[in-house]
Amino acid sequence: MASEEELFANIDALLAEEPQLPPPAERARLREAAGITQARLAQALKSTTQTVKNWENGRSEPKPPRLEAYQRLLNGWAAKYPAHGAPAAPAPVAAPQPEVPEAFTGPAAPDATETETAAPVQVPAVQTAPERPATSSRRPAAKKAAKPAIDPRFPHGPLAVLDGDGSAYGIDGIVLDCPATTVPELVEWTLKESGLGAAKLNRYGKDSDPLIVLTAAAAVKLGLPERLEGHEQRRSLRLPEDHPVVKQVAKAKWQLTQRGFGPWARIYRKAQGRERQCVQLAILSWDALDERSWPGVAEMEPADIARVLGIYAQRVITPRGSTAVSGLELMTALRPPTKAVQDPETGNWVSGHNAGSLGTEPMDPAPPETTPEHPVVVNSGWTGGFLNEEAYQWVRSVDSLSDEECTLPFAVGLDLNTAFLAAAARLVVGLSAPDHFHAPKFNPKIPGSWLVDLSHIELDPRLPSPFTPDGTRPTGPAWYQTHTVAYAQELGHDVHPIEAYLRRETGAYLDPWHDRLKTAYVDTLADMGVTKDLSDVEFLAAMEQHKQKDPALAAVLSAIKATVKGGVGKLRERPQGKHYKEGETWPALQRPTWRPDIRAAVISKARVNMHRKLRNMAAMTGLFPLAVLSDCVVYPSPGESPLDFLPYAASGKPQPGGFRLGPTPGLAKLEGVQSMLWAVDLMEKGLNPARHIKGGDAVLDEGE
Q1: DSSP secondary-structure letter at 135?
Q2: DSSP bridge pairs for 214
Q3: Cα 313 vs. chain centroid, distance in angstroms?
Q4: Rounded Cα gap, residues 262 and 241, in angstroms
Q5: Which of 2-11, 16-25, 685-694 shows the lowest mean pLDDT across its residues?
Q6: Reduced to 3 states, what is the DSSP secondary structure of residue 279?
Q7: How many other β-carbons are positioned within 10 Å of the β-carbon of residue 130?
Q8: Are 605 and 366 in contact (CB under 8 A)?
Q9: Angle between helices 551-569 and 323-334 (to 10 degrees)
Q10: What is the pTM of this model?
Q11: Cα distances (angstroms) measured from residue 452 to each of 112, 259, 477, 602
Q12: Nearest 10 degrees: CA dihedral of 322, 327, 329, 330?
């Protein structure tokens, strides 16, 4: 039983809490009842209209001294304009609040059903379209993906690949007869007869629109050109507005999105009630499937294309554009911005903010988190520098190589499986607008950007600096994301931030995104024979052959990895097009998912994770890397296998803390083997051996 002193202490703590504001919807009601605009309220409180909007939609909360002023205003309005049948509430006791709290709001406890889809009724697989006989595929898939429970609303799966003879190839060998000869007819058939689509991934989300992929022959049959030609990159080309097909779409009362009729075209009508009317088209001969993300898929037979895209749709999401676009769409599908809430006044269900999401409105970043051309920077004249949280591009100095290292015969490349996906796990990011602080005390639990001098920290020159992408030692104060500064503290150094932009409301926004993509990646590797229960020797043997066993699954695996990197990169999509002028807005800025701070957090954590492994490897084995490129590291080795230098205990088990082999995100796989002399020759020329071993990019793709 609690003592009287403990109970009184708890009551005193409650009384000392900051003023409690009414719910966001009530704040908006009171302001509207008083006839005051958001702009006028912002002017009175010496704030911005966007900030007032955030208070009224629940995305952020005011802080002192505006908190007390806003509370007083709302109390006054509540007395004058009480809710129907509700007396005005007394004002709670206010307490002083420190300028920088030790910790802001932490991630909310996840809803047990938030990222789950209600289990649809299990029914036998349907092999034919309604009232239309199906024919067999000309090239049946060699292997079928594991079947999820069938949604009776979408018996034929999420998509189909339409060929020139009217055959629409779906998942599991289904072939439907599509009689459409024009694009409007195709849209009508897809929505009314095809049985295509996919259930929502979150109970507050929306069902995925059906996808129709057009072969070159199908495109020509529907009146589209076989190829789009022009001076610009093909993915940015569009049909002109006076093209006959565009006119057909408009005449049939259908609409195109702002991106027009390009390789990925969305054709829709405004929703009638809860029923969406939208079809996604992808045109293969217009390079809808990028070879880098979907290797070899565009050249496959229609049935095999349907298999590849179908597995991806079932395990990740129905494609809506490039893998970068799909990665971003998956974030929103798993964390919808709104949910149905009951209006306490009327009892009606209305759209309200979904806690843990990024909301429906875009948010201006802090100046150091954005890019030099951003309006926030140009309009404010910001000259205080920017975050430089990027992936590693580091080559070790040849002068630091020992004679013993130079005599080792091999250079072995290790690549971390989806390192940036692993970094997204349990990553706490900001959900509200940034607040500016001067000389704050560093708190590793608060996501944000910190201006701090880390140039005094001296580390082993045989390792890259964990604080810069090129691995060089910082030369003075610079902006860093929280994880980078926390790592400096982990290394035993005091950090004293000069200023910071921090966020009060936080959450593990990317957790469901991470979980779904991790499961997709691991399951696809398992289908290719690379499972978690393999020994390291068996794992290396399986990885050597896995791409040759099933090219379709290899393409799915490539697309999943591209979805991770592209999705993270697109959080900071830069302006595109030669006509862009600095200081202008660009379309990506209108998205709530334009969040360069979240991108920086993922990359910072991934780079810190890489350095921690490099440091542990040096302590356990005495080995130092030759080069690091993004998530690939090259080590000198006495043999051709990583088994020749990775640390193992006497029991044969891998030592924790260093690099370990395995199919799970964050674990390593063999990426390539070369001669040590070749690696040293590249290093002397200032080139990165990891780039040539891996052949990959060092930066996260910022999308198309």
Answers
A1: -
A2: 162, 283
A3: 16
A4: 11
A5: 2-11
A6: strand
A7: 12
A8: no
A9: 70
A10: 0.79
A11: 39, 42, 5, 20
A12: 140
C-beta of residue 279 within 8 angstroms of C-beta of residue 190: yes
Side-chain-side CA neighbours of residue 700 (13 Å): 34
What φ, ψ does residue 325 adopt, rounded to 5°?
Answer: -60, -45
Q: Which of 540, 484, 518, 522 has the alpha carbon at shortest distance from 669?
A: 540
Distance, CA of 243 to CA of 446 (rounded, Å): 53
Closest by CA position to 396, among listed 406, 408, 409: 406
SS3 state of residue 341 = strand
Distances (CA, A) of 103 to 126, 130, 280, 447, 502: 54, 58, 44, 10, 11
The edge-to-edge listing of strands for the beta sheet with 632-637 is 393-395, 627-629, 632-637, 410-416, 668-675
CB 280 within 8 A of CB 309: no
CA angle centred on 577, ends 571 and 579, rounded to 5°: 130
**Contact criterion met (CB below 8 Å) for 698 and 630:** yes
Question: Rounded to whole angstroms, how far apart are CA atoms 457 and 682?
Answer: 29
* Amino acid at residue number 63: K
Q: What type of residue sits at position 616?
A: N
Measured between alpha carbons, how far is 66 from 19 in angstroms, rounded to an integer? Answer: 11
CA nearest 405: which of 617, 624, 614? Answer: 624
Confidence of residue 21 (pLDDT cuts 50, 70, 90): confident
pLDDT digits (tens, 9 = 90+) for 359-405: 999 999 999 999 999 999 999 999 999 999 999 999 999 999 999 99
Q: Are 419 and 631 in contact (CB under 8 A)?
A: yes
Question: Distance between CA 591 and CA 360 in Å, rounded?
Answer: 8
Q: What is the C-alpha to C-alpha distance for residues 625 and 413, in angstroms, rounded to an integer?
A: 10
Q: Is the peptide bond before 210 cis (omega within 30 degrees of 0)?
A: no
What is the widest separation between alpha-carbon atoms in the chain? 86
Residue 129, phi then psi, degrees to nearest 5: -75, 155
State how far the alpha carbon of 18 is from the alpha carbons of 91, 401, 422, in Å.
11, 59, 37
Specify the DSSP element, H or E, that contains 430. Answer: strand 429-430
Q: Which helix (H) or strand (E) holds 694?
A: helix 689-694
**DSSP three-state, residue 508:** coil
Decide if 559 contacts 305 (C-beta within 8 A): no
Angle, helices 323-334 vs 511-527, to 10°: value is: 120
- Tally Cβ neighbours within 10 Å of residue 240: 8
Residues with Cβ within 8 Å of 255's Cβ and at least 6 positions away in sequence, in order, are 249, 267, 268, 269
Q: How many CB atoms lie within 10 A of CB 680?
A: 18
Q: What is the pLDDT of residues 209-238, one digit of tens each?
A: 999 999 999 999 999 999 987 655 455 689
Which residue, 217, 473, 208, is CA-closest to 318?
A: 208
Amino acid identity at 662: G
With tokens 């975050």, the residue in question is 387
Residue (of 339, 191, 336, 347) closest to 271 by Cα position: 191
